[in-house]
Amino acid sequence: MPVTAVLILAAGTFAIRLAGPLLRDRVTLPEKVNDLMTASATVLLLALVAVSALTNGKQFGGWALAAGVVVGGLAAWRKLPFVAVIVLAAATTAGLRFFGVA
Fold it and tell me: In 78-94, which positions are buried (b, 16+ CB within 10 angstroms) versus exposed (e)?
């Protein structure tokens, strides 16, 4: 039974993924819908980043972690190298925690 369920789910997933490229030219969406879909994808991604970056399990991760995320975001916005972004964010969080900021 489980193998059959996995095969059915795999076939359904493949069919859905194949339908996208096959139906791309047949289905047209209004420009406003495309804009809303783009904005909603961005909002969803930002919400996912905020939740995963600012929480520790089920609770707030602390102000030091939030400050590290902000510093990392600013460094990325200034187009610093990826290693520098990570080091700055980690150093900010570690430094604040060293000085007792939770």
Answer: eeeeeeebeebbeebbe
